[in-house]
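A.,

Following up on our hallway conversation. Structure tokens first:
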């Protein structure tokens, strides 16, 4: 999970001050947890330095506002289209998908397809390896890969459910 992309997602549609951004990123995380407010402000400093975000001023309660710049939008959309490798947690893809849904990302279908393609590639590679371990009598490695394949199958089923409900 990246605070950076949570902030870019939150700023996609409207300006926010720091605490609103913290609440927005927390909501994107869902059941995964909450972030430290300090993470929001240090990340905002870096985003401003990198010219992905700027500050148009203050709101009526004298809280500093932040807005997304064109470079920030490009960065977010590029990140949304990068498949999440299996070795990272499934929750990372859920976070990315949640960000895409929040901004009504027009290429959500492409994002899901790319993720499925990557999972299918992993399944094919692991199935080959699983067969090799079976033939070599490597029972523990065979069972470990079998478990990983079951997780990948569950991830594919979840993506298919997302696609079916999005229609």
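Then the amino acids I'd put at each of the 167 positions:
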């Amino acid at each position: 999970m990246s605070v950076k992309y949570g902030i870019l997602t939150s700023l996609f549609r409207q300006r926010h001050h720091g605490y609103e951004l913290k609440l927005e990123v927390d909501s994107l995380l869902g059941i995964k947890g909450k972030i430290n407010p300090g993470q929001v402000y240090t990340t905002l400093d870096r985003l401003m330095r990198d010219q992905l975000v700027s500050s148009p001023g203050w709101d009526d309660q004298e809280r500093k506002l932040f807005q997304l710049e064109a470079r920030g939008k490009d960065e977010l959309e590029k990140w949304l289209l990068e498949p999440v490798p299996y070795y990272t947690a499934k929750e990372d893809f859920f976070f990315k998908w949640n960000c895409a849904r929040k901004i009504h990302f027009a290429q959500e279908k492409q994002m899901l397809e790319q993720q499925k393609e990557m999972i299918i590639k992993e399944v094919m590679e692991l199935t080959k390896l699983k067969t090799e371990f079976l033939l070599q009598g490597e029972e523990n490695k065979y069972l470990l890969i079998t478990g990983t394949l079951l997780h990948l199958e569950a991830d594919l089923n979840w993506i298919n459910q997302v696609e079916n409900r999005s229609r």
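The chain has a mean pLDDT of 90. Curious whether your intuition agrees with the design.

B.
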